[in-house]
Amino acid sequence: MSERRIHRTFVSYIDKSREYYAAQGYEKPYAWAHFKEVPFTPLLKPLAECRIGLVTTADLEGRAGPRNSKLFVAPNAAAKAGLFTEKSWDRESTHTNDPETYLPIARLQEQVERGCIGSLSSRFYGVPTEYSQRLTMEQDAPQVAAWAKEDGVDAAVLVPL
Predict the structure, then answer these.
(1) Contacts from 20-24 at CB under 8 Å and sequence distance 24+?
(2) Would you tell me which of 39, 81, 83, 104 could form a disulfide with 58, CB atoms 3.0–4.6 Å apart?
(3) Which of 96, 98, 148 has the alpha carbon at shortest distance from 122?
(4) Domain for residue 28, yes or no?
(5) For the chain, what is the domain count?
(6) CB distance 52 to 117 below 8 Å
């Protein structure tokens, strides 16, 4: 009797995105964002002194307004009410049973207590998936940056769902 091996296979998000766009009737394949120069900057102080903000693509359960079309900012405690997404994601390879996988508030708070990071912003920022590079760059990113500035955030952790 031969031994049957069970192993994980990877998910090709590039292929899945191209297939999704083709299925929606787009003639041109999805073009991934890229930069000749990386648009990031080094931290101006040690991580142990930084305030960290969290950005998620999940949406708040019961939030008013059209789903996945509006940015939002919410107190960290609001995450306990539930987060979700209506857009496509690989439901066979992952799940949303553990909110810490897409909004790791408790894990980051543990790092504050250990002294690894200075503090965690009292609010998190929602950027529900829009599938638009233009909207993300021109509208979403500046608004999230403004909220983060209001909260004194030094660095952000981006956690897509």
Answers:
(1) 20/88
(2) 83
(3) 148
(4) no
(5) 1
(6) yes
